[in-house]
Structures are given as structure tokens and as C-alpha cells.
Write a structure and sequence with these properties.
Blueprint lengths: L8 H15 L31 E7 L7 E3 L3 E9 L6 E8 L2 E9 L1 E2 L6 E8 L4 E9 L8 E2 L3 E6 L10 H13 L11 H13 L10 H8 L14 E6 L4 E6 L2 E7 L12 E4 L2 E6 L5 E7 L2 E6 L12 E4 H10 L5 E5 L1
Parallel strand pairs: 2-10, 11-19, 17-18
Antiparallel strand pairs: 1-3, 3-7, 4-5, 4-8, 6-7, 8-9, 8-10, 11-12, 12-13, 14-19, 15-16, 16-17
Length: about 350
Amino acid sequence: MRRLIALSPALLLLAGAGPAAAQDPAPTSATPAPTTATPAPTTVPVPAPAPAAGTLGLTLERVNGKAASVLAGDRIRVRGAVTPYVAGQKVVVRFYRGAKKLASRQVTIKPTKSGTSGTFVLGYRTSSAGHVTVRASHRATAQLLTMVAKGQGVDVLPLRARPGSKGLAVRVLQSKLKAFGYVIGQAGVYDGRTARAVLAFRKVTGMARTQDATTDVFRKLARGAGAFKVRFPRQGKHVEADLSLQVLALIRGSKVERIYPISSGKPSTPTILGSYRVYSKTPGTNAKGMVYTSYFHGGYGIHGYADVPTFAASHGCLRTPVPDAISIFRWIAYGDYVDVYR
């Protein structure tokens, strides 16, 4: 038989205390439970926009159109165009004669009506003759990159020049005359050949037949006047003599290569009109004082002569100044057309 052993209450208490204490130890110091913290928001810097690329252009106004010429003392207008428009931007406009800087102006770009592009305008005046080049540039900023405009030029013409004078005024005069085909002399010297070029120009433009380059001459040159009007461009290399103007032009097609003053037949011995071909050429000077003659019909010819007044005074031939005779003679070839008209 099993024997039951009775335990006292004290022993029961001791027997139960051990396991209970092992299962539930008494808490020591309080340790807070870990928590998951929410990080503070960070601000990412927004990069500044890159500067924009643009274009800058220049236009010169009040310069007599394509002639791009003014008289000394005249005021020109410089107009600029900028794309895109950015507020607060500036452009520097500079004026040069050769490598010498004449002036510098800073201007603020203003918006156009559309607001997408900008513009600026300024005036400029110089009292000295010569070729003036206008340039403009914009230095890079945080909003707009560097821009440089293509330079624009204008000829500033002197107010007058006369035979015997020298210098820049004469060079400007010669440059404008040469562009039309007038035969000039030594660069920068108002010599006899340049004087005859002025005379021929005056004839073509209907001015008084003198050899002085007055203000009126320069003003007409500034306006682009003085071109010889070719009547027979289809004849290729040919000569045209306009008796109403008393000038002779050596022409290839429609391009005028040279223009000379002449004296044609006087009323009692007029020059024959019409279209002819050169059939004979005589170098040197003959017994009648005709120098280097190119004959185009019968006894009618183109030749140098000692006396070449500003009006019709010959015996029927086309007289040219003796210093021009040889170069004209060499230019003209057998078979070239000679067109004589009024």
C-alpha cells in the first residue's frame, strides 16, 4: 500500500517558493521600451537655372540705305535686337576707325511688345571722315550667356576736297568713285586722274562740270548716286559713249569697269550715232595729234587729244584726255562694239 506523507504548511510554502521565484524574478531598475523615431524632413536645394543662350544683332539706320554713307557731322542711328529678352541686361556698343576706338556706350536692353525679345537704340555722330565700324557685345551674366554682334560699317564722307589735297578725305572720295568705275589716281592724292574722275562723276549726275569735290559731290556719293546706266549689256565686252553726258564707259556685259570724261563732235561736225565695231587701231600719235586711236566707223575713232573741253568740241571723234589714251587703247580689242547715243 502507498504511504501518504503529510507535509507541514511551512514545508509546503518552501517547496512552492523556489519554482515561483525562478519563473517570475523580481524587477530591478525600470528600462524604457525602445521606440521607432520619425526622422526630421530634410530640404533639398533647387539648383539655379542655367544662363540662356541668345543672339545679338545690329542695324545701322539713317545711312542712306545700301550706300551706307553719311557726311561728316551727320547723326546715325544704331538699333540692336536681342533674343531672348531678360530683364536688367546691358549691351556695350563701341565705335572704331580702323583699330582705334572712337567711343563706347553702355545701353540697357528693353523689351519689345511681345516681351520675348529685346531692343536698344542709340545715336552717334562724328565730324571726322573715314570708315567707322560699329560693334556690340553682351558680357555673360547668371541669366544670359555672352553675345557678340556682327560688326556693321558706315563711310563718313568729308565735306569737300579739291585738286592738290591729300589725306584721308581724298582716300574716302577715291574709294567711293572707284566703286562706280571712275578711274582714280594715286591713293590719297587728289591728282589729275582723280580730278578727271570727279569731272566724269559730275557729268553723270548732272552737276556743274568742274573738278572740285564739293559738299554736293560727297552728298550724292553718300546717297549712292553716280552709277552709269548700261544700255547694251548683251553685247558683252563693249564701249558706250553717252553724248548727252559727254562720258565714255568701258563695259563687260552689265558691269561698268571704267568711266572717262570725253569731248564728242561739235554741232558743225557731230559724232555719228549708232552701233559699230572697232576695225582698226593705230598706236602712237598721228599728224593730226590723235593719240592711240581705235577706229569704229570711217574716220571716226576714240583717241587721246591735247584739248578735251567739258563740252562737245571735236571734229567728230571721241576725244579722251591724253593720260588716259593708252589704257583705253589697250582695253579695246578688234571687233569690240562701240555704241554711240544721246
